[in-house]
Amino acid sequence: MHTHSSSVVAVKAARALAELTNREFPTVEEYLRGLERNSHALRRASRSHASLHTTQRDIVNTVEIANPDDVATAKGLTTDAIEKVVAEVEAAKDRAAARAAPFLADDDVLFTHDFSSTVLLAIEDAVEDGATFDMYVGESRPRYRGRKMARKLGSYDAIDVTLGVDSASGHYLTECDRVVVGMDCIVGETLYNRIGTYPLAAAADGRDVPVTVVGADSKFVDGAFEFENEFRSPSEVLREPTDEFEVGNPAYDATPTRLLDAVITDERIYEF
To answer: Cα–Cα distance between 113 and 138 in angstroms, integer?
Structure first.
């Protein structure tokens, strides 16, 4: 969860539930309790991943609503539900990327932040269709996920990549046509995404550079999901322990949607 995008986390967590189908349960009731208990543990592991919560609830609800007569049937339903959820997550990512690719191809210079598998796929689709880009990538401290993005993008001859420290974004934005980032979720009028997204969007707004978000439509969530930020280990920021001051390390920040130009999903394009 510290190093992968939210869609990857959702898929890995869904497949983790398949472990239960290899265990023995005396009754259907015992199996369903085990399914709910393990799914709850996975959801509790990250209260900030909307995709994780949505897919886990879909799997458990599908099995429970079917009211299976025996454990073997319950296990089969679980396997089918997992595969359906995984297929939906991957298909939504593919569709969102395909919708975003021609949108991004109209620009020459892009700036991206962190590592989003959907953003990467959209850029790859645009390159396959003949687009070329100059790209700036923020390194995304403290986990440096932007470095991973830069390496992936740098493997394409059609993309010239510059990796920069996060605090240099205002400098490089003067050369950019668009900022493109992924999303963890959008709740109401707030985009929650990897830390550093908000200052990047604010700087882009000051430079009149449009900010485009790419992700699955299912990441628009209602009040039933309450986003809860994660505060990571201080050692990610400062390796030497200290008693003189505290080290803050929030994983996500909140960006007002008024700073966005558009959100491109597998279903439609939202303009702000």
So the answer is: 5
Q: Report yes or no: 50 and 219 within 8 Å, Cβ to Cβ.
A: yes
Active site residues: 184
- What DSSP element (H or E) covers 194? strand 190-194
pTM: 0.85
Specify the 3-state DSSP secondary structure of 137.
Answer: strand
At 162-217, the pLDDT tens digits run: 999 999 999 999 999 999 999 989 988 999 999 999 999 999 999 999 999 999 99
Please list, in sequence order, all residues whose beta carbon lies within 8 angstroms of the beta carbon of residue 173, skipping any fewer than 6 positions away. Answer: 111, 179, 203, 204, 207, 209
Joined together, the tokens standing for residue 123 give 């850029």
- Domain with residues 6-92, CATH architecture: Up-down Bundle (1.20)
| Domain 97-271, CATH among 3.40.50.150, 3.90.190.20, 3.40.50.10470, 3.40.50.2000 | 3.40.50.10470
Residues, the chain, total?
272
- The angle subtended at Cα 34 by Cα 28 and Cα 36, nearest 5°, is 105
